Amino acid sequence: MVLLTEGLVVWLHLVAASIWVGGSIFIGVILSPILNMITRTVEERIIILIKIGRRFSYIAIPTFGVLVLTGIYNSKAFLFDPSTLYQTNYGVILLVKISLVIATLIA
Protein backbone atom coordinates (compact mmCIF):
# COMPACT_ATOMS: atom_id res chain seq x y z
CA MET A 1 0.00 0.00 0.00
CA VAL A 2 2.88 2.36 0.78
CA LEU A 3 4.38 1.85 -2.69
CA LEU A 4 1.01 2.62 -4.28
CA THR A 5 0.73 5.85 -2.27
CA GLU A 6 4.30 6.84 -3.12
CA GLY A 7 3.70 6.15 -6.81
CA LEU A 8 0.43 8.08 -6.83
CA VAL A 9 2.02 11.11 -5.17
CA VAL A 10 4.93 11.11 -7.63
CA TRP A 11 2.46 10.76 -10.51
CA LEU A 12 0.37 13.68 -9.21
CA HIS A 13 3.53 15.75 -8.84
CA LEU A 14 4.58 15.07 -12.42
CA VAL A 15 1.10 15.74 -13.83
CA ALA A 16 0.86 19.01 -11.88
CA ALA A 17 4.32 20.04 -13.10
CA SER A 18 3.35 19.24 -16.68
CA ILE A 19 0.18 21.31 -16.47
CA TRP A 20 1.75 24.29 -14.70
CA VAL A 21 5.04 24.45 -16.60
CA GLY A 22 3.58 23.31 -19.92
CA GLY A 23 0.78 25.87 -19.79
CA SER A 24 3.18 28.65 -18.87
CA ILE A 25 5.56 27.72 -21.69
CA PHE A 26 2.67 27.52 -24.14
CA ILE A 27 1.50 31.01 -23.24
CA GLY A 28 5.00 32.48 -23.44
CA VAL A 29 6.46 30.63 -26.40
CA ILE A 30 3.47 29.83 -28.64
CA LEU A 31 0.59 32.15 -27.84
CA SER A 32 2.44 35.45 -27.49
CA PRO A 33 4.16 35.26 -30.91
CA ILE A 34 0.90 34.22 -32.58
CA LEU A 35 -0.88 37.19 -31.01
CA ASN A 36 1.77 39.45 -32.54
CA MET A 37 0.72 38.15 -35.97
CA ILE A 38 -3.06 38.30 -35.52
CA THR A 39 -3.59 41.52 -33.55
CA ARG A 40 -3.10 45.06 -34.73
CA THR A 41 -2.16 46.84 -31.54
CA VAL A 42 -0.31 46.15 -28.32
CA GLU A 43 -3.49 46.95 -26.41
CA GLU A 44 -5.37 44.13 -28.19
CA ARG A 45 -2.58 41.68 -27.35
CA ILE A 46 -2.57 42.74 -23.71
CA ILE A 47 -6.34 42.37 -23.41
CA ILE A 48 -6.25 38.87 -24.91
CA LEU A 49 -3.28 37.80 -22.76
CA ILE A 50 -4.99 39.10 -19.62
CA LYS A 51 -8.16 37.14 -20.45
CA ILE A 52 -6.20 33.98 -21.18
CA GLY A 53 -4.00 34.48 -18.12
CA ARG A 54 -7.01 34.83 -15.85
CA ARG A 55 -8.59 31.74 -17.36
CA PHE A 56 -5.34 29.77 -17.03
CA SER A 57 -4.98 30.85 -13.41
CA TYR A 58 -8.11 28.82 -12.56
CA ILE A 59 -6.06 25.76 -13.46
CA ALA A 60 -2.55 27.00 -12.66
CA ILE A 61 -3.08 28.10 -9.05
CA PRO A 62 -4.63 24.83 -7.80
CA THR A 63 -2.07 22.90 -9.84
CA PHE A 64 0.74 24.90 -8.23
CA GLY A 65 -0.73 24.04 -4.83
CA VAL A 66 -0.76 20.34 -5.71
CA LEU A 67 2.82 20.69 -6.95
CA VAL A 68 3.96 22.25 -3.66
CA LEU A 69 2.10 19.75 -1.46
CA THR A 70 3.28 16.70 -3.37
CA GLY A 71 6.79 18.16 -3.46
CA ILE A 72 6.77 18.49 0.33
CA TYR A 73 5.53 14.91 0.63
CA ASN A 74 8.19 13.64 -1.78
CA SER A 75 10.95 15.43 0.11
CA LYS A 76 9.93 14.23 3.57
CA ALA A 77 13.14 12.20 3.94
CA PHE A 78 15.16 15.39 3.52
CA LEU A 79 12.93 17.35 5.86
CA PHE A 80 13.43 14.81 8.68
CA ASP A 81 17.22 15.05 8.29
CA PRO A 82 17.98 18.62 7.16
CA SER A 83 21.74 17.97 7.00
CA THR A 84 21.11 15.93 3.84
CA LEU A 85 19.96 19.12 2.11
CA TYR A 86 23.51 20.38 1.82
CA GLN A 87 25.42 17.09 1.97
CA THR A 88 23.89 15.43 -1.10
CA ASN A 89 23.55 16.50 -4.72
CA TYR A 90 19.80 15.95 -4.65
CA GLY A 91 19.55 17.96 -1.44
CA VAL A 92 21.28 20.92 -3.10
CA ILE A 93 18.95 20.62 -6.10
CA LEU A 94 16.01 20.49 -3.70
CA LEU A 95 17.22 23.69 -2.01
CA VAL A 96 17.35 25.39 -5.41
CA LYS A 97 13.83 24.17 -6.18
CA ILE A 98 12.57 25.41 -2.80
CA SER A 99 14.18 28.81 -3.45
CA LEU A 100 12.51 29.01 -6.86
CA VAL A 101 9.12 28.08 -5.40
CA ILE A 102 9.48 30.79 -2.75
CA ALA A 103 10.46 33.32 -5.44
CA THR A 104 7.43 32.28 -7.50
CA LEU A 105 5.11 32.71 -4.52
CA ILE A 106 6.55 36.16 -3.83
CA ALA A 107 6.18 37.20 -7.47
Notable traits:
107 residues; 5 helices; 91% helix; elongated; mainly alpha
Task: Describe this entry's structure for a reader.
The chain has 5 helices and no strands. With about 110 residues, it is mostly helical. It folds into 2 domains: about 1-65; about 75-105. α1 packs antiparallel against α2 (about 40-75). The mean pLDDT is about 90.
* Relative helix content: over 70%
The unreliable regions are none
Q: Mean pLDDT, rounded to whole units?
A: 91
Topology order in helix (H) and strand (E) letters: HHHHH
Please tell me the total number of domains: 2
Gyration radius, rounded:
18 Å
Q: Summarize the biggest pleated sheet.
A: none
Shape: elongated
* N-C termini distance: 38 Å
**Individual helix count:** 5
Category by helix and strand content? mainly alpha
What amount of the residues lies in strands? under 5%
Q: How many strands? A: 0
List the helices and strands and how they pair.
Blueprint: H1 2-38, H2 42-74, H3 76-80, H4 84-87, H5 89-106
Put the structure in a nutshell.
With 107 residues, the protein is mainly α. The protein has five helices and no strands.
